[in-house]
Design brief:
The chain is mostly helical and about 280 residues long. It has one domain. It is built from 16 helices and no strands. The longest helix has 25 residues. The chain is globular, with a radius of gyration of 19 Å.
């Protein structure tokens, strides 16, 4: 196993175990579905996506960074930027690209069909942060590779970003609550569970906000920030209204077929007023 894979795997397993223990000891909300059922199928979806990416794009973003470096490609090479600038700048631009990728996946109908697999989860916990359709994971990797090559991002910047992205996805989807004295100031820098839980609300104007995964500044900067849910922290209804059947939303076959099937009820995300809720500012 390569050093990069070992580092990523160790960090992923470590953060996952910490979040699982935290959610077990101090859960924020009572689950609507048995945790064992959801975690089994959410992790199965992650495993399938991981295998497909490794088979079809084995080098991934790390391989793209090595190739760009060998060819002296990308913005940082052309500018002869110092390493520290290339490192920090790459982390910021990659995080920004994830913000815009996420936002676009909400507003382009065929991309939303893929991304709604993530939002159809009827509960909100760390496993939700792992629950993405394999085709979305593939597209996300291709976008990441393009950004890495265009920047000429340093190898270790890419590795650190991958580790941070996985860790923050587990963290900000956690079924936990930080103490208010810590959560409020922390939210000015990082995406917290309280902030991201609003993004998983069934209220579509709340779903179409708080897109950031790591740094929360992007939502404030691009006018997509929602401070508080209408129903309050404890009253948020999680999931998608047009997917009430838990057999479809919590089991692997249903999740895999969701982008290619019609929901039981009209899709609010496709039909709601784009001028009011979906305008890309």
């Amino acid at each position: 196993m390569s050093l990069e894979l070992l580092i990523r795997l160790a960090c992923f397993v470590g953060v996952l175990l910490i979040m699982l223990a935290w959610e077990t000891r101090q859960p924020k909300r009572t689950p609507a579905v048995a945790k064992s059922q959801r975690w089994l199928h959410n992790l199965s979806l992650l495993g399938l996506a991981t295998v497909l990416v490794r088979l079809l794009i084995p080098a991934g973003a790390v391989g793209a960074a090595l190739w760009a470096q060998s060819q002296q490609l990308g913005l940082w090479h052309w500018l002869s930027a110092p390493y520290w600038l290339a490192f920090v700048g790459s982390l910021l631009v990659l995080d920004l690209s994830i913000y815009w990728q996420h936002r676009i996946f909400h507003h382009v109908p065929w991309l939303w069909r893929l991304h709604r697999v993530h939002h159809a989860d009827p509960d909100f916990d760390s496993s939700t942060g792992l629950r993405f359709h394999p085709l979305e994971i593939m597209l996300s990797m291709l976008i990441k590779i393009a950004v890495v090559v265009l920047l000429g991002a340093p190898l270790w910047a890419v590795i650190v970003f991958e580790v941070v992205l996985n860790a923050t996805s587990l963290f900000n989807h956690g079924n936990v609550a930080l103490p208010r004295w810590l959560e409020r100031p922390l939210r000015y820098l990082l995406v917290t569970q309280e902030m991201h839980r609003i993004h998983h609300s069934q209220v579509m104007r709340e779903t179409n906000s708080n897109y950031s995964f790591n740094l929360s500044i992007w939502d404030r900067l691009f006018n997509s920030y929602t401070e508080q849910a209408e129903a309050g922290s404890d009253g948020i209804q999680i999931g998608l209204r047009n997917y009430p059947d838990q057999r479809e939303t919590t089991r692997l076959p249903g999740m895999l077929m969701m982008p290619f099937s019609q929901p039981k009820y009209p899709d609010d995300q496709s039909d709601h007023d784009l001028s009011e809720h979906s305008k890309l500012r």
